[in-house]
Design goal:
Length: 139
Amino acid sequence: MAIGKELGFSSETARTLIREYIDQLTVPLAEQMRKAESDKLDRREALLWGVLDGKYETVSHGKVVLKDSGEPVADLDPLFKADAALNRIAERRAGLWGLNTPVKTEHMVTTASVVDENIASLLREMEARNAEEVNRLSA
């Protein structure tokens, strides 16, 4: 790298210094952006909690729908929509702060040859037991 050569150190050192310099510029900016986005999510979340605390009545053709008792029929749709929006906010916040890290899982695969070997072993064991039983009964 020409920069390293001109400054008197290796190209790898120049790359490292450039990466560190870029990180010094971008990491604080990224943190500021995360904080700003998180603040927006907080404001939206507060509004949605207000929706969940409310009581809503079903309206049809401009009139409140009433039960036989004269009591208004509750409208749950705003609550379901607010709940779904809160879930989306939680997912967005988790992504913003890196909480959705991949989970390592371990899988064990049993190949056909291992299964075949186990079956053959069980067959040999059964044949030996059968032979013992035949000998015992014929004696």
